[in-house]
Design goal:
Blueprint lengths: L2 H8 L5 E3 H7 L4 H13 L3 E5 L2 E4 L11 H8 L3 E3 L1 H7 L9 E6 L4 E5 L2 E7 L9 E5 L4 E5 L1 H11 L6 H8 L11 H11 L2 H18 L1
Parallel strand pairs: 5-7
Antiparallel strand pairs: 1-3, 2-3, 4-5, 6-7, 8-9
Helix pairs in contact: 5-6, 8-9
């Protein structure tokens, strides 16, 4: 049975596989499995994204295009989509974003792959997934920061001691799309970052909307 037939028979749910998943699906000894992987790569049925991670191709029988946000969490885990990629996802900024940006528990790192440039920025470990949501549709699943978490990730990582108005001006952010900052969100974000400049930014953002309403 061919590798493609094995994938169809097992109804493998996504277009990328780890080393352990490929080994599970292929039969034989460790050496014969490595040989089969090399052959599949040479035939264009598999594409290596990074060491230990592969992507299926149309030649390999896969017609589901990889979603870069989902793929990011297989390239470097644990992580979630944030920063400019989250801003673009929520239509908060007008510019197209070509680098897939994520927050990560591991050290900051970039991966330049055939499927795009993936950038990961280190954030604190405690309550890492606070104010992060699971996006899921019929085909893809990935973790992404909520709008205010993505903004605070950006402010925290780049150490931007900005007011809210400076943020709007520098990122050309469309605040008509941005949800109001709720008190419980403000509290959770302050607890997560434990930084005075984050607290000051959030207080200013809250006051900005109060001034707008008044």
């Amino acid at each position: 049975m061919s590798f493609v037939e094995v994938l169809h028979r097992t109804q493998f749910p996504r277009p990328y596989l780890t080393d352990s998943e490929v080994f599970f699906l292929l039969q034989g000894t460790a050496n014969s499995r490595y040989s089969k992987i090399k052959r599949l790569l040479a035939q264009g049925k598999l594409r290596q994204v990074r060491r230990g991670l592969y992507c299926l191709t149309e030649e390999g029988g896969c017609f589901l295009k990889p979603h870069p946000f989902e793929l990011a969490q297989f390239i470097y885990a644990p992580s979630y989509i944030s920063f400019e990629s989250a801003f673009s996802f929520y239509n908060l900024i007008p510019e197209a974003v070509y680098t897939i940006t994520s927050a990560s528990l591991k050290r900051s790192k970039e991966f330049n792959t055939d499927l795009g440039l993936f950038s990961f920025m280190h954030l604190p470990a405690e309550n890492f997934y606070s104010e992060v949501t699971l996006y899921k549709d019929e085909q893809y699943t990935f973790f992404i920061a909520k709008p205010w978490k993505a903004i605070c990730d950006y402010i925290y990582f780049y150490k931007k001691k900005w007011t809210f108005e400076v943020l709007i001006e520098n990122l050309r952010m469309d605040i008509s799309i941005l949800p109001l900052l709720q008190d419980y969100e403000k509290y959770l974000l302050e607890e997560f970052y434990q930084k005075v400049f984050i607290n000051t930014f959030l207080k200013d953002a809250k006051n900005y909307f109060i001034r707008k309403i008044l």
